[in-house]
Amino acid sequence: MKVVEVRHPLVQHKLGLMRRAGNSTKEFRELASEVATLLTYEATADLATESVTVDGWAGPVETRRIKGAKITLVPILRAGLGMLPGVLELIPSAKVGVVGLQRDEHTLLPVGYYEKLSGRMEERTALILDPMLATGGTLIATVEMLKAAGCRRIKGLFLVAAPEGLRALEARHADVEVYTASIDQRLNDVGYILPGLGDAGDKIFGTRY
Ligand SMILES: O=P(O)(O)OC[C@H]1O[C@H](OP(=O)(O)OP(=O)(O)O)[C@H](O)[C@@H]1O
Ligand SMILES: O=c1cc[nH]c(=O)[nH]1
Ligand SMILES: [Mg+2]
Description:
5-phospho-alpha-D-ribose 1-diphosphate binds at residues 78, 103, 130-138, 199. Its EC number is 2.4.2.9. It holds the Pfam family UPRTase. This protein is of the alpha/beta class. It has a single domain, classed as Rossmann fold (3-Layer(aba) Sandwich), CATH 3.40.50. It has helices spanning 9-19, 25-43, 84-90, 137-148, 163-172, 200-205; strands at 3-5, 49-56, 59-66, 71-77, 95-96, 98-103, 110-116, 125-129, 132-133, 153-161, 177-183, 186-187, 193-194. Helix 1 (9-19) runs antiparallel to helix 2 (25-43) and helix 2 crosses helix 3 (84-90). The two termini are 34 Å apart. The structure holds 1-O-pyrophosphono-5-O-phosphono-alpha-D-ribofuranose, uracil and magnesium ion. Uracil (URA) is lined by residues 132, 134, 191-193, 196, 199-201.
């Protein structure tokens, strides 16, 4: 399974700022979006391009443009919405399909409550957005929704990923590519990533600390 841990200094610096206890909602939200932009840069490095000649200031210039990329962003409600503005900065024409899943805090199993995907998913590359890949249950359920809709090319962007979640994904959907700012140490006994970020949804939406 392709797993890219983005070691770029800007990513590591901004993730380090996110890990501080006591960030304001504004600070955490801005950083989540900025790291998402940088992960997008990595996750789109393999987009096909084609040659095109444009009228430049000194005459015709042969340049390159992206060829036929059909991208659907798939933020997982709720926390994934915090990454959406940063990804749209780089791919402003992307379609957006939204899925809603919430982890039951006792069983740690995902409970789905919403799904609205783009049409013709079989032609599209999906970029799943979620700050946290913990047990992997939420991601696996999302991948299964996308595959059921016909999607064949799926990448996931996560601020932080736990080894447990990566192993679970590899066992079920090793064709999915993962881009993350950090593969962290482990999950704690209530399924939170260590050192992690805490509850990303609560921090992005300012609901609880
Ligand atoms: O890998 P897993 O163990 O499934 O956990 C990860 C999920 O948990 C968090 O969402 P949460 O359920 O807290 O929902 P929220 O975004 O509404 O806060 C997080 O944003 C992921 O979606
Ligand atoms: O560490 C974690 C795990 C799941 N969800 C979060 O927001 N944080
Ligand atoms: Mg949450």
